[in-house]
Amino acid sequence: MRRVIPLAVATMLIGVFAGAELSEPFREWPKGPAGFLLTKKEKKEYGKLTTDAQAQAFIDLFWARRDPDLETAINEFKVQFDQRVEYADANFGYGKTPGWMTDRGRTLILLGPWAHRSALPPSQTARRLESETEANAPSDEGAGAEIWIYRRDQLPGAVRDDLKADQITFIFLQSRIGIDDYQFARSDSRMVAAMRVLSDMPDALLLHPDLKEVPRLGLLRGSKAATAGELAIFAAEPRPWPEGTVVRTTTGIQSESSYCLWLFVRVPGTAPAANRVVGRVRGADGSETGTFSRAIAPLPTGDGNAYELSIPVDAGKWFVDLALLGEGGPVAVSTVEAEREAVETSSTYISPLIWGSDVRQEVNAHLGDPFNVGGWHALPNIGDRYRNQDSVSYFCYVVRPGLAAPQGATGEGATAEPQPNMELLVQVSVDGKVLGQLPPQKVTLSRVFGDVWMFGHALPLSGFRKEGAYLLEVTLRDTISGASRAAQIPLNVVVGGQS
Fold first, then answer.
1. Is 15 a residue whose pLDDT tops 70?
2. Mean of pLDDT values over 52-58
């Protein structure tokens, strides 16, 4: 069994750090998966450290310098990195070699998921690679190969600008049948550009090279951690909570790999407006996860002022201590129980649908903004009341949808980008009786960023000529991956008048 490349990688990572007077966990850190990210300058700097405190400070700053958004408490890069390492270990390991240490693991960790991946069994490998030199073929036992293709637009800007081709190709070969080592086919001419890109990635992923200290933030984007004095408001009694104040929560999306809790609070117009929010997030066991304090602007609605938050938390049940503060003191203080659903990050995920009739287009919206899908801000309809002159609009995100070549774009020379294949099922009922059901209809998704897509649809209510409590049942299904999401939307329809 040959392990030439993994041992070479380990030696490369170990050599720089020999002699450091650190405890074992810190001596081992650069020899692990994070070592692939270290720049040459960082390797030298870490090799000079002599105390665990220095090493911990280095590591904290190391991750912060790669954080795509320094205004949030969650480091999306670190979350994505950990997921890639986990996937590599689960799928690429062989023998006693962990998956992250393999060539496929290194490639995934640095570049992320491929645009296209194909596996060639031994019977096809030689034929498919015959255009290359004899030295590129697997061993004489006829082992298999894998080919990974990355599109140019998947690469960081600095790397992309230096690349002349529209894509790069990685070829991995088994050293022999039954040994799943899949090593780089380094002598294959197609690997020259691929290996150059791989070597450039550590510098390309360093987003904030001049950052000198780790930002100390609250849980919310742009917030600071709440002070002890601010948090004291949660111990004060009684807690003000204006009659008619309503809260809605759901699971939201911040990136392909980061998810959050969206929280909507509507305070009646009779209450003063708030200009600041203070909060504390606790786990199901009561332990504190984080705090926040920041300015907040009311969102005027027909029934009062709304306030929205996007809170980055792991899956599970949470207690959110929330205080809305105005010029004259606290406006509303309460503890909100909420749950962020679990997400399988290696398969298609369809987020919970959000809906309403008050939909506002926001061209400067960010991925992760609460109750906003691709720039469409749907305010929850408290009371579910609609006029039959309204339309009810519903939206969701689809992450990692199944992709297929557009119809008519298959075959040799096809260049069209693969697209999702989604279908929508709609049914309307009243008092348990189905009034109408539409046959499955194909719907289009719009790409928001990377592998995050959005879905949106509107149903005019002009066909509802009688007042009543209707139920709109909507199911969105990915016909390729099989993932689906259903929602039941109550419609208390009035004919004319105000909703």
1. no
2. 95
pLDDT at 220 over 50: yes
Nearest to 382, CA basis, from 277, 226, 265: 265
Same fold, 217-341 and 344-499: yes
Look up the CATH architecture of domain 217-341: Sandwich (2.60)
State the chain's mean pLDDT as an integer: 89
Q: Is the pLDDT of residue 8 over 90?
A: no
Task: Report which secondary-structure segment, H or E, holds 169.
Answer: strand 167-173
Rounded to an integer, the average pLDDT of 325-344 is: 96
CB 423 within 8 A of CB 441: yes
**How many Å apart are CA 252 and CA 245, to the nearest integer?**
22
Q: How confident is the model at residue 256 (pLDDT cuts 50, 70, 90)?
A: confident
Convert the pLDDT of each residue in 144-164 to its tens digit.
Answer: 899 999 999 999 988 988 888
Distance of CA 193 to the CA centre of its chain: 29
pLDDT band at 13 (very low <50, low <70, confident <90, very high): very low
- Determine the average pLDDT of the residues in 415-435: 91
**pLDDT for residue 11 is more than 80:** no
Helix axes 103-111, 4-15, angle to 10 degrees: 60
Kindly state the tokens that stand for 273: 């407006």
Is the model's pTM score more than 0.90?
Answer: no
Q: Which two tokens stand for residue 108?
A: 């995934």
Token pair 């099922």 in the structure block, residue: 425
Please provide the CATH number assigned to the domain covering 344-499: 2.60.40
Q: Which of 74, 52, 54, 53 is nearest to 63 (CA)?
A: 74
The total number of residues written for the chain in this structure: 499
Residue ranges of domains in the chain: 62-204, 217-341, 344-499
pLDDT, position 408: 63
Strand ranges in 229-303 using DSSP code E only, listed in sequence order = 246-253, 259-268, 276-283, 288-295, 299-301
| Whole-number Å distance between alpha carbons of 378 and 398 | 17
List phi, psi (to 5°) of 228: -60, -35
